[in-house]
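Bumping my old thread because nobody answered last time. Still need a sequence for this structure:
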């Protein structure tokens, strides 16, 4: 599931962090004080009095007094690690970060296992942008305080900011073994998987632009965003590149089905079955089309076949066991169709067959009756399903099982055959089967066994991208089950609606999330981003400023806040934000373009030229070349200006022609599927 644009969350303090901070103030017990106290009675008494006074002052918010009293304790016992840590926390609360870090380092040197000191030193390093340096301290804190989800969350955040996404996933999965219902950890895991999926998709586009798999992945992305005409175009491109490729017609049929084009969907499922008569997914979907169209007997005939072949896979294809997000939410059929299908219930109830039972459970799922659909099984023995004709796990057996659509059977022994020494085509078939069976972790294990230089790299990129997308959806589903009313659920729904282009619903959901948790990073930015996209400038600016109050190092908020001032022709106000954004994200070519615009408006044309020239690789419509030409004109460099104007005109013409062709093709697609 692809969810909108995302700027990685940088480390920052939050209310949750401050609560965690407070928990460390009371870590020093009376026995610990006694152990650290010098043997001299008067000194011991003074140490205890100073410590008690420091604790009392800290609780009342009198930080200068707390600082003075902690220092008095250290003058008596300078090697008291916990007091160094508590003094650092007092500095932390006063935003005296360098002083706080000094004390945390003292505490760690004296007592390396002190979780609080390691944690806050790691957080402070993150705040300063030293994410890699923060990771060892946060790992130490996680070892010493694994019961605190905050520690794991910050470690994952540091790893994300440092670009160690696989490490982030490992951290989050380990944390969730003991904090399985923590919505923040689950949300982070979903976002990490999304990022890995985008990396694989980018690698695929670079390795084979315009290939069948690259077009297929684009089509699937547009399908999730409900942009069915564009999705159809990319499926058609994929079929043109590989006319006989298995699976493309059934995916195109699903997209047409969800777009309400019933007859066209049925033709695609028939075409898939012409190419692959055993395609279980196509048979299931063909039965669904027949069921919706009112041909109940034919639908039950198809479903009887697949229930006998693999009931577990049949349930998964129809989305019977899923609710909430992703594919299952996308597959909810139009209300008129659902109402019409309810007429079949009496007939189905009279039939005591597995296929009729499947139809009833399918209807329960469609009407949102989750308790009914989950409590009932498609067939009496579906949960204990054993593949037919069990046989030894030989390569021939696995190939035959895959050919016959027996994914459950293939899954039971395929992993033993999918070793690096096995044939590459078999391993890829096994990976595809494991993916179809919903075992995405096993799919990744097979794919990761291929060397990076393998000739099948396009297939590997494609399947890995799909796996990470599915794993992200699984994390979000688990989050939904953990707390369906949480602010994170509102955030995910907002992200989904933004991706689908429903900005109004996205704004509503982001506001609901903020109302529940106003101190969480990235929420204000996400809301501001949608408002800015809709040119609600003052509202967007308010949200960007709120984000930066929480996290001054948020590159996205800095950039877009600067852009709001550019829109209103206040380059002097825009420049500080754009420069801060560039310091955090120096590879962002759009920032160089915006800086060039600001310098041009300020009359600093030489600086503008430098920025525009850096931004040129991102110019696809001639707009940056045009701005550069205008800057050269102001500098009276006519020859350079003329050259840039010519390039700009040529690029603009190409972009315009490409847009016209895309618009014409979209129009043709929409017309061709009217009333179908």
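Sorry it took so long. Here it is:
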């Amino acid at each position: 599931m692809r969810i909108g644009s995302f700027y990685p969350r940088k480390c920052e303090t939050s209310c949750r962090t401050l609560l965690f901070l407070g928990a460390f103030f009371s870590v020093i017990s009376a026995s610990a004080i006694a152990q650290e106290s010098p043997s001299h009675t008067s000194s011991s008494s003074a140490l205890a009095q100073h410590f008690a006074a420091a604790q009392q002052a800290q609780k009342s918010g009198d930080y200068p007094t707390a600082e003075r009293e902690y220092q008095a304790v250290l003058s008596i016992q300078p090697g008291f690690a916990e007091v160094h840590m508590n003094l650092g926390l007092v500095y932390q609360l006063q935003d005296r970060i360098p002083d706080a870090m000094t004390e945390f380092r003292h505490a760690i040197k004296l007592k390396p296992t002190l979780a609080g000191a390691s944690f806050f030193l790691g957080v402070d390093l993150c705040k300063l942008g030293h994410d890699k340096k923060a990771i060892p301290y946060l790992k130490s804190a996680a070892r010493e305080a694994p019961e605190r989800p905050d520690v794991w969350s910050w470690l994952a955040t540091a790893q994300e900011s440092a670009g160690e996404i696989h490490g982030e996933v490992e951290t989050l999965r380990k944390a969730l073994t003991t904090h399985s219902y923590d919505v923040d950890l689950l949300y982070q895991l979903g976002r990490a998987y999304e990022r890995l999926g985008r990396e694989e998709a980018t690698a695929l586009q670079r390795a084979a632009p315009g290939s069948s798999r690259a077009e297929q992945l684009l089509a699937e992305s547009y399908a999730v965003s409900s942009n069915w005409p564009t999705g159809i175009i990319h499926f058609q491109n994929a079929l043109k590149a590989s006319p006989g490729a298995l699976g493309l017609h059934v995916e195109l049929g699903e997209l047409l089905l969800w777009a309400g084009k019933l007859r066209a969907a049925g033709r695609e499922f028939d075409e898939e079955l012409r190419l692959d008569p055993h395609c279980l997914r196509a048979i299931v979907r063909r039965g669904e089309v027949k069921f919706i169209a009112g041909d109940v007997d034919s639908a039950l005939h198809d479903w009887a076949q697949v229930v006998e072949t693999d009931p577990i896979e049949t349930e998964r294809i129809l989305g019977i066991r899923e609710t909430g997000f992703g594919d299952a939410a996308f597959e909810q059929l139009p209300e008129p169709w659902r109402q019409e299908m309810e007429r079949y219930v009496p007939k189905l109830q009279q039939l005591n067959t597995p296929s009729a039972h499947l139809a009833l459970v399918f209807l329960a799922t469609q009407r949102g009756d989750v308790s009914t659909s989950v409590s009932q099984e498609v067939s009496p023995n579906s949960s204990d399903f054993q593949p037919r004709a069990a046989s030894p796990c030989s390569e021939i057996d696995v190939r035959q099982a895959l050919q016959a659509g027996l994914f459950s059977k293939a899954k039971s022994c395929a992993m033993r055959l999918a070793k690096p020494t096995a044939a590459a085509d078999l391993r890829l078939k096994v990976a595809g089967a494991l993916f179809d069976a919903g075992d995405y972790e096993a799919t990744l294990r097979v794919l990761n066994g291929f060397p990076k230089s393998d000739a099948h790299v396009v297939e590997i990129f494609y399947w890995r991208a799909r796996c990470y997308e599915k794993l992200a959806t699984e994390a979000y589903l688990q989050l939904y089950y953990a707390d369906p009313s949480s602010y994170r659920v509102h955030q995910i729904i907002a992200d989904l609606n933004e991706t689908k282009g429903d900005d109004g619903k996205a704004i509503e959901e982001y506001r609901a999330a903020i109302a529940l948790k106003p101190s969480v990073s990235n929420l204000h930015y996400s809301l501001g981003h949608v408002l800015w996209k809709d040119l609600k400038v003052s509202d967007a600016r308010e949200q960007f400023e709120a984000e930066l109050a929480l996290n001054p190092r948020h590159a996205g908020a800095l950039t877009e806040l600067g852009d709001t001032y550019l829109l209103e022709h206040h380059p002097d106000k825009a420049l500080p934000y754009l420069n801060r954004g560039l310091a955090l994200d120096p590879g962002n070519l759009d920032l160089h373009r915006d800086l060039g615009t600001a310098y041009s408006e300020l009359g600093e044309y030489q600086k503008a030229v430098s920025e525009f020239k850096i931004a040129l690789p991102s110019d696809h419509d001639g707009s940056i070349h045009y701005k550069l030409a205008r800057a050269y004109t102001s500098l009276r460099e006519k020859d350079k200006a003329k050259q840039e104007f010519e390039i700009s005109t040529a690029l603009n013409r190409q972009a315009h022609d490409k847009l016209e062709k895309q618009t014409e093709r979209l129009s043709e697609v929409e017309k061709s599927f009217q009333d179908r």
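Residues 201-384 form a domain with the Serine Threonine Protein Phosphatase 5, Tetratricopeptide repeat fold (CATH 1.25.40.10). Let me know if any region looks off to you.
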